[in-house]
Amino acid sequence: MLGRVPYLPTYQAMQDFTAQRTSDEPDQLWICEHPPVYTLGLAGTRAHLLNPGNIPVVPTNRGGQVTFHGPGQVVAYPLLDLQRAGYYVKEYVYRIEEAVIRTLAHFGITGHRVASAPGIYVRLDDPHSHARLPQRPQKGAGGPGHTPDFTGLGKIAALGLKVSRHCTYHGVALNVAMDLEPYARINPCGYAGLRTVDLSTIGVHTTWEEAADVLGKQLSIRLAP
Questions:
Q1: The pTM of the whole model exceeds 0.85
Q2: CB-based contacts of 202: which residues, under 8 Å, 6+ apart?
Q3: Which regions of 55-180 does DSSP assign to beta strands (E)?
Q4: Confidence at residue 9, expressed as pLDDT on a 0 to 100 scale
Q5: CATH dotted code for 3-20+27-127+150-222
Q6: How far is 145 from 50, CA to CA, in rounded Å?
Q7: How far apart are CA 49 and CA 56, in angstroms?
Q8: Interatomic CA distance for residues 58 and 65, integer angstroms
Q9: Residue 16 and which of 43, 125, 134, 195 are 20 to 30 A apart at CA?
Q10: What confidence tens digit (pLDDT) does each residue in 70-111 have?
Q11: So where are the chain's domains?
Q12: Which of the residues are catalytic?
């Protein structure tokens, strides 16, 4: 657990660790929170930054569009050697999402995947419902160019990843108890009108430390070789 750390030095440290690591370097899992910052992925366009105001904007080399990090959000950075772990990027994304789903289940919330939209979502009308989403990923559906359907959903966890020489950095952010207003100043993940929620707004009152502990344990289990 790194606690609250500034974004830029953490980003630089991830790059340095990944560039310098050897094939026998043990994997690491960094868990932290950041002061308010918008980060732009490689696909990110500043058109999705509607009104950043005094919140800094940092271009990065992760995948995806624009997102927000701030206090009350658990950010997890798995620094893994995928070649050694024995699975590919698609499986890696699935395992991270599964760790978030299991973390939400710990708090009585049902997390959902949405076709063509990485991350985890909850039903706004009933976050506890186990009913399967019509928007869930299905064989033969979705794919490149498919427009995700966020009807009735709020995004509670965002993914943004980078793989260099089979090694991963960046990671996943789970919203616990945040000031959500900064999300209204962007098109989250490049989608206008996508609602962003945290655990507190859907009725779960927990601490950052507890959520970080549960997510950290789930990631350690799900990302094991």
A1: yes
A2: 109, 122, 124, 127, 154, 156
A3: 57-59, 66-69, 73-79, 112-114, 117-123, 153-164, 167-175
A4: 98
A5: 3.30.930.10
A6: 24
A7: 11
A8: 12
A9: 43
A10: 999 999 999 999 999 999 999 999 999 999 999 999 999 999
A11: 3-20+27-127+150-222
A12: 189
